[in-house]
Amino acid sequence: MSDNPYRLPRHVVPSRYDLTLAPDLDAATFAGEETITVEVVTPTAEVVLNAVEIEIDEASVRLGDGEPLAATVTLDAETERATLAFPDELPAGPASLHLRFRGILNDKLVGFYRSTYTDDSGVPRVLATSQMEATDARRAFPCWDEPDAKAVFGVTLVVPDDLQAIANAGEIGREPAGEGKVAVRFADTMPMSTYLVAFVVGPLVATDPVDVDGKPLRVVHPPGKEHLAQFALEVGAFALRYFTDWFGMAYAGDKLDLVAIPDFAFGAMENVGCVTFRERLVLVDPALATQAELQVVVDVIAHEIAHMWFGDLVTMKWWNGIWLNEAFATFMEMTCTDAFRPEWQRWVDFGLARSAAFDTDSLASTRPVEYPVVSPADADGMFDVLTYEKGASVVRMLEQYLGADRFRAGIRRYMARHQYGNTETSDLWDALEAETGEPVRRIAESWIFQGGFPEVTVSVNGGSGVTLAQRRFAFDDGDGDRGAEAERWSVPVVVRHGGDGGEARRVLLDGASTSLPLGGGTPGWVNANAGAHGFYRVRYTGALLDGLLDNLGELSPLERYTVVDDAFAAVLSGSITAADFVGLVERYGDERDLSVWERIVGGLGQIDRLAAGDAATALHTRVAALIGPVRVELGAEARPGDDDRTRTLRGLLLQAAALLAGDEAAVQRAGALLEQFLAHAPSLDPSLASPALLVMAALGDVAMHERLSERFRAAGNPQDRERLLLALSRFRDPEALGRTLSLSLSGDVRTQDAPYLLREAIANRDNGPAAWAFVAENWSDIEKRFPANSLARLVSGIRSLSDRAVAEQAVAFLADHPIPQGEMQVRQHIERMWVTVALAEREAARLASSLA
Ligand SMILES: [Zn+2]
Questions:
Q1: Of the candidates 409, 220, 289, which has an alpha carbon nearest to the alpha carbon of residue 718?
Q2: Which of 745, 681, 751, 8 is nearest to 376 (CA)?
Q3: pLDDT digits (tens, 9 = 90+) for 217-244
Q4: Disulfide: which of 383, 473, 606, 737 matches 731 by Cβ 3.0-4.6 Å?
Q5: Closest residue by Cα to residue 796 from 769, 743, 756
Q6: Residue 455 CA to ligand 1 centre (angstroms)
Q7: Which region holds residue 693: left if phi is over 0, alpha if psi is between -120 and 50, else beta?
Q8: CA distances for 283 relative to 212, 297, 817, angstroms
Q9: What single-letter DSSP state applies at residue 138?
Q10: 304 catalytic per annotation
Q11: All residues with CB under 5 Å from ion ligand 1
Q12: C-alpha of residue 38 to centroid of ligand 1, in Å
């Protein structure tokens, strides 16, 4: 700790900030003043705290009732610190620091920053808002900007009196401050970390508060969007009650605002009492939204509200613990969404998110979930699929292995013990261990402190049992060291088989292999990831895979999903062929689950990219035969009584028929649906509108592009905007896609969205190389304009590039243009791109002959 130049010394610690900020929205600046109540632990003549891009005009200290003593201030931009030097040593004991300072409202969407929107009469409006995590509170006010330096915040915002002003706690007073301004005072917060501080000032309106067991809940948004705020109020109230019950503990804030911000770099941010969101994750019209669009709103609101307890009330000591914060909130988000709409089958759908984590974790360049974090850039690099999706998968695996009730009891024990405090991740394992008596720390640490995950091989052993063996799974099978003791996991394996009524057996596979007697004679089928909660892949030897495929009806939807997902991973690693995969999914003719079909269609879509000529024709014929009967059964139109997943499945298979099965009638149908959508969207089932858009964009020309981009500019709600952007990335027509590329830098697309539009364009089925060339050509502009956290995400589009020469250019370009805050992710994107290249080269020749 002491040898890390980024960690503050702790001879002076803060307990309270009285902070006044006066933003000037027109000038894009702010002035501030703060009194920090501190304890001098060790006598010192220097106080060191964080500040960057802030001018400190005055700093002094007061001891007891004494006179203020002025400090000399020096700023170090590299370590983002301010040092206050006093002529004499400050004695141990209480003291208060007083600082006056000035800063800028930047347009990089971090710290205290500017966001803009155009109101109904075409007038541009400005707001000032904040995003402090990970280490940007120091851009807004000098502070001990480390998560364990918790303090109480008493905030006052001086603002024009016609603007909304919001902070972490409820408003307790306002006084005139001259020149049409008002000083708005907020209640004291609970003791909390600086990364959770929030201020929002601007021309925004708030819904009437909903009383949630004594805590007022509001949605705050730009004017004119009241009708998009009702769903979030319903979800917010549900989630607040759900978590109060789940944690067995009241919400610690005095109010909760869900605030829609027009420009927002992340998805949402769990500031205590003042959660900020990008608009599409909180504002939605349920009548016009697809299930996926609604579900992500529920997910994200639930996720952020879960953080009010896990993260905000109990907080990691340092940024190496960020993964547990996010993994756990992601896990809780699933449980809450699952309770909110059980028919959405949220845990089955989570399979898709877990697949994304497997995908990155199958690379040599993956990382352990938890790793040492030295600099702020290291912490920024943690916000990725391994933290959120792998982390949540590991938490889910543990929960299922321990039992949901025992797991929750352990979490309650942990929360009660550490509330208002800070923890290491091992504190959580210890609480779970104390509650359950299981070796939780040993199991958890084997998944957290090493990258990758095991593949469990199952083979029949003497006819009455199975042998389970583990070995690290990797796309590139070239490494002879895998399977070594250093790369083992404590794998909580759950086995179910057809021999004795299907009862599940649990075994902790700790070593290289273990035998499991099954009883009941030769098992007809064995499922070695029963429940499919395990974060491992399974390889079945001999006739076991066939046995499983013959008995798909015995498996749960998530188990069936996992069989497909494991098979596609085997295609990527080269252990089976693309044609083998097509043959395997042809056994799924009776499948009716949405998530399973999403995985099947996803895999077939990737194979379709490799198929040309006869191979493409053969693939189309086989896909048509597979999905045809299901489409007939579902019918063309929504039926009364269809649940959301059934309606979504109908749309998915329409899209697959049009794009992967060469079904001309499906294309015609998509065309008619698109016309209906453009003419009068409310008349159309949203679950058909969205796929129709993607189909007609993929097959459309420049004229279609013109119509869709016009509609994008006029979109009336955030979901429409998002859908149209995605569609604009799908044009296979090179000229049309070229227009999408230009649009991304035109100013019509917000900088919060443009990086993702470009990512999708690079992943375009036919125009990926052109999109990549565009990005490379415009890199300096992109780097300047887009939020820093989005650059590595933009580059992730290269994972889909399959041409060796283009891949080599991309590698050379990225070597010359490093992205320091996303260095590790970029390495992963490059390695994953080579997996795509290798797949294309392997399959190109054999696909035609093997599919026909
Ligand atoms: Zn989170």
A1: 289
A2: 8
A3: 999 999 999 999 999 999 999 999 999 9
A4: 737
A5: 756
A6: 29
A7: alpha
A8: 20, 8, 37
A9: G
A10: yes
A11: 326, 329
A12: 30
